[in-house]
């Protein structure tokens, strides 16, 4: 009994050491750190939107004004401040990203782990995932969003529903290699229940892949949400980056007022690029071979 | 060194020629001062869905089919009807109407355009009820049409209807009997090839998603020397108004058929090489309150809503001052014959709105929440819907906006599934007919679902008389009743703007986006400077 406890301690210590080593390696990667900085900044902007700019509502008398001291990002076709729209848009864009990626990850991981752990289920999971991955996602998203009507809930559900197979694919391939390892057999021999083994041994082993998936799914969700909003299938009553683009397109301002499209696009670019770089940096950092380099 | 320079030169020449070879060639635009032999290229945002003008159709369908199938009457910028295929029209008695036709129009296969074609078109619409046909609703009092002579059409009416000649005359496209009759059922006739046109143009080439080519038809009596000036018209399809404007700036097209978004008008007016043409509006934008809703059935609630809208702000900001008030009347001021200049717009008064709401029993303890539907494809309405919501909130009324895809919006409208409906009508050319459709129970566009016996009586009396003065009195009384009871909240009449290259002139301006400068008479007279 004592030996088992000591063994568990050492596993825990190993994990702590690995996490520290990963973090140490991650810190050494300037791109990764800058990306984290950008992401944190965007989250702060989203969280503190009311402190940064007044909610863009109503109208203003300065229609389609180029960026200036009074309006840093210019104004749109109703004279509203685009800086305020981008700031408040960050909020909805990040909420959609967070919620839909959380949902996609939850579904994706559960399906992946069950598939990997129970071989009988795996063939079905594999087929379903392959089938879902071969579907033309964008047209289906448009169809579902159009039928269900534009709202935050619709967007989150639609994006999550079409994002989980990708998560399942990545997590399942990792989980399949983990379930074959001797320590999983050892765990089974100790008489632990399947749920306990999955929770204590399988999930921690695939956690790094999940972390990468979270970041990538979230950034893809931002793009999907913006795409749907641009097509007029976003929530027309709250600000998102996609809605700013949609309104620029609808008002015919795209070809004459570059600022209506540039700034929301830059915001999206910043979020997606930083998310991607973080996942790359994290992958490099947790790979011992990359760390040695 | 010299060798390197030569290589660079050769590379540059190759690159330039490669780029030139890859670029789409510009449409043939021979420089002919009179415009004969030239091509007029027009931008639109949608494809043609129906080539059959008798089936309900989109804007592009209408623009293109109207160039082939003539109307009996046209309409001028002030809403007055003017002769076209019909020389004159009237009533021989209260239940017999007539049109006398001109005899110099021909179909492109050589057959004359006769009264037989007109009577066939009307009888076919009555028999086959083509889906979405506007004229069908206007023929409700018509029993049948006949052609006693090649130039005279007579309508037998079931009951007196003073507006049928002008309304059907303006809205209906006349189709060639010898082409449409063999199909058996005009509602199912695709008419997608071998077109026969009465001019000024005939469709000769269709490249779906890209372009529609039309060639001139002669004789066309409404063009100089019976010949449309430009020999060829090409409608090119663009994804949206942004790309259309770019195409116009790059000289890829000569004219944009779609009305410009209000915020783009000033910008294009200041663009060299581009001329912006004002098109008088003939319709209006409005909100209707669903009278079946228990709260909205209360006049005070409707009044509260009508006072919680900043109409001036909507006109000056969303429409950039390109709209005029109708004095909250459903008769737009452009219809000078009928309009009542004394009609006052609902005042924007939040306090009054709150007070009315309180009198109706609503307030902080019993909040009023309503939904408002509008089409997301309607960019202008989508914008002011937000202003309406914000101002209503100040009066304590919560309006939940439901912007939706156009088809869903139409379905919800038809089913009456809304508290407030926001939208607009392109052409409201005749107050009597429009009020019958808008406010009589069962009317095709009675979106407030109103059924007021006093109002019904006024509208029916207006329909029944051919005396202009009496008719004016009835429709003005009806309009006042609509305004005072907030059966409809008419917000503004928008004047539209279209842009074309300043190399072109001679366009004839007609009201509404449907006709604007792409009306057949206009295009037949357009010339390149």
Automatic annotation (TrEMBL), chain A:
State the superkingdom.
Bacteria
| Classification via InterPro entries | BP-dependent_transpt_permease, MetI-like, MetI-like_sf, OppC_N
Pfam family of the protein (one): OppC_N
Q: Which UniProt keywords apply?
A: Cell membrane, Membrane, Transmembrane, Transmembrane helix, Transport
PROSITE patterns noted in UniProt: ABC_TM1
Q: Does the keyword Transmembrane apply?
A: yes
GO BP terms: namely:
transmembrane transport
Q: Where does the chain cross the membrane?
A: 33-55, 92-118, 138-164, 202-231, 262-282
Q: What is its main location?
A: membrane
Q: What membrane topology term does the record carry?
A: Multi-pass membrane protein
Mind telling me which GO cellular component terms the entry cites? plasma membrane
Concerning SUPFAM superfamilies, the annotation shows: MetI-like (SSF161098)
All copies of the ABC transmembrane type-1 domain together span 90-279
Q: Which CDD domains match?
A: TM_PBP2
Q: Where in the cell is it found?
A: Cell membrane
| Similarity section | Belongs to the binding-protein-dependent transport system permease family.
What name has this protein been given in UniProt? Peptide/nickel transport system permease protein
| Organism per entry | Asanoa hainanensis
From TrEMBL, chain B:
Q: Which UniProt keywords apply?
A: Signal, Transport
Q: Which PROSITE patterns does the UniProt record give?
A: PROKAR_LIPOPROTEIN
Q: Which GO terms describe its molecular function?
A: peptide transmembrane transporter activity
Query: What sequence ranges are listed for the domain Solute-binding protein family?
Result: 83-441
What's one Pfam family the UniProt record gives for this protein?
SBP_bac_5
| Keyword match Transport | yes
Query: What is the predominant subcellular site recorded for this chain?
Result: other
Question: Which cell locations does it reside in?
Answer: Cell envelope
Q: Which SUPFAM superfamilies match?
A: Periplasmic binding protein-like II
Kindly indicate whether the keyword Transport belongs to this entry: yes
Q: Which GO terms describe its cellular component?
A: ATP-binding cassette (ABC) transporter complex; cell envelope; periplasmic space
Tell me where the signal peptide lies. 1-21
Set out the biological process GO terms recorded for this chain's protein.
Answer: peptide transport
The text of the family note is: Belongs to the bacterial solute-binding protein 5 family.
Q: What is the protein name for this chain?
A: Peptide/nickel transport system substrate-binding protein
Q: Which species is this record about?
A: Asanoa hainanensis
């Amino acid at each position: 009994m004592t030996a088992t406890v000591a063994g568990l301690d050492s596993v825990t210590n190993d994990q702590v050491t690995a996490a520290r080593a990963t973090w140490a390696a991650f810190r050494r990667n300037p791109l990764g750190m800058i990306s984290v900085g950008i992401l944190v900044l965007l989250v702060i902007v989203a969280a503190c939107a009311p402190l940064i700019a007044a909610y863009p509502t109503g109208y203003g008398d300065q229609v389609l004004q180029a960026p200036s001291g009074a309006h840093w990002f210019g104004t749109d076709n109703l004279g509203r401040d685009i800086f305020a729209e981008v700031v408040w848009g960050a909020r909805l864009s990040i909420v959609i990203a967070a919620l839909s990626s959380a949902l996609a990850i939850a579904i994706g991981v559960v399906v992946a782990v069950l598939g990997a752990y129970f071989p009988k289920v795996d063939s079905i999971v594999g087929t379903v995932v392959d089938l879902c991955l071969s579907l033309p996602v964008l047209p289906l998203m448009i169809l579902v969003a159009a039928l269900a009507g534009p709202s935050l809930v619709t967007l989150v559900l639609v994006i999550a529903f079409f994002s989980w197979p990708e998560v399942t694919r990545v997590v399942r391939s990792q989980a399949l290699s983990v379930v074959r390892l001797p320590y999983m057999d050892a765990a089974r021999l100790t008489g632990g229940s399947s749920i306990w083994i999955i929770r204590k041994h399988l999930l921690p082993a695939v956690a790094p892949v999940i972390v990468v998936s979270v970041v990538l799914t979230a950034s893809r969700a931002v793009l999907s949400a913006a795409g749907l909003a641009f097509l007029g299938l976003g929530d027309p009553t709250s600000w998102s980056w996609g809605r700013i683009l949609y309104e620029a397109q609808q008002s015919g301002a795209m070809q004459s007022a570059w600022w209506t499209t540039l700034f929301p696009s830059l915001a999206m670019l910043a979020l997606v690029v930083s998310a991607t770089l973080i996942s790359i940096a994290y992958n490099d950092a947790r790979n011992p071979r990359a760390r040695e380099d | 060194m010299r060798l390197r320079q030569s290589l660079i030169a050769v590379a540059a020449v190759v690159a330039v020629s490669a780029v030139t070879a890859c670029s789409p060639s510009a449409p043939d635009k021979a420089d002919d001062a009179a415009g004969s032999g030239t091509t007029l290229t027009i931008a639109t945002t949608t494809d043609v869905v129906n080539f059959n003008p008798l089936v309900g159709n989109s804007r592009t369908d209408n623009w293109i089919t109207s160039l082939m199938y003539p109307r009996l009457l046209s309409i001028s910028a002030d809403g007055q009807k003017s002769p076209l295929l019909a020389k004159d029209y009237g009533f021989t008695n209260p239940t017999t109407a007539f049109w006398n036709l001109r005899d110099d129009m021909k179909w492109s296969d050589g057959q004359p355009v006769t009264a037989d074609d007109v009577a066939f078109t009307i009888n076919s619409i009555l028999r086959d009820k083509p889906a979405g046909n506007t004229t069908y609703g206007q023929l409700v009092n018509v029993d049948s049409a006949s052609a006693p002579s090649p130039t005279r059409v007579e309508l037998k009416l079931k009951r007196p209807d003073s507006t049928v000649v002008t309304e059907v005359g303006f809205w209906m496209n006349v189709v060639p009997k010898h082409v449409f009759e063999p199909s058996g059922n005009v509602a199912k006739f695709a008419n997608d090839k071998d077109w026969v046109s009465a001019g000024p143009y005939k469709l000769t080439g269709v490249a779906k998603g890209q372009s529609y080519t039309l060639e001139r038809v002669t004789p066309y009596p409404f063009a100089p020397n019976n010949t449309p000036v430009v020999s060829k018209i090409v409608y090119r399809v663009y994804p949206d108004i942004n790309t259309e404007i770019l195409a116009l700036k790059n000289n890829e097209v000569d004219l944009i058929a779609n009305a410009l978004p209000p915020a783009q008008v000033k910008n294009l007016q200041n663009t060299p090489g581009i001329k912006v043409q004002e098109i008088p509006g003939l319709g209006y934008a409005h909100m209707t309150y669903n009278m079946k809703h228990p709260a909205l059935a209360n006049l005070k609630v409707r009044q509260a809503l009508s006072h919680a809208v900043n109409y001036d702000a909507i006109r000056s900001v969303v429409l950039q001052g390109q709209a005029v008030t109708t004095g909250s009347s459903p008769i737009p001021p452009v219809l000078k014959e009928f309009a009542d200049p004394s009609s006052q717009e609902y005042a924007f008064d939040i306090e009054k709105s709150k007070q009315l709401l309180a009198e109706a029993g609503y307030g902080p303890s019993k909040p009023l929440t309503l939904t408002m539907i509008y089409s997301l494809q309607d960019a202008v309405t989508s914008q002011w819907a937000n202003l309406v919501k914000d101002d209503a909130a100040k009066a304590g009324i919560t309006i939940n906006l439901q912007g939706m895809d156009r088809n869903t919006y139409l379905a919800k409208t038809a089913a009456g599934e809304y508290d407030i409906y926001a939208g607009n009508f392109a052409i409201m050319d005749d107050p009597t007919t429009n009020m019958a459709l808008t406010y009589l129970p069962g009317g095709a566009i009675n979106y407030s679902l109103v059924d007021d016996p006093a109002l019904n009586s006024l509208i029916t009396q207006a329909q029944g008389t051919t005396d202009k003065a009496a008719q004016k009195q009835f429709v003005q009384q009806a309009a006042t009743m609509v305004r005072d009871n907030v059966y409809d909240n008419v917000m503004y009449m928008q004047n539209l703007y279209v842009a074309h290259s300043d190399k072109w002139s001679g366009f004839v301006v007609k009201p509404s986006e449907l006709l604007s400068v792409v009306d057949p008479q206009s295009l037949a007279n357009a010339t390149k400077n």
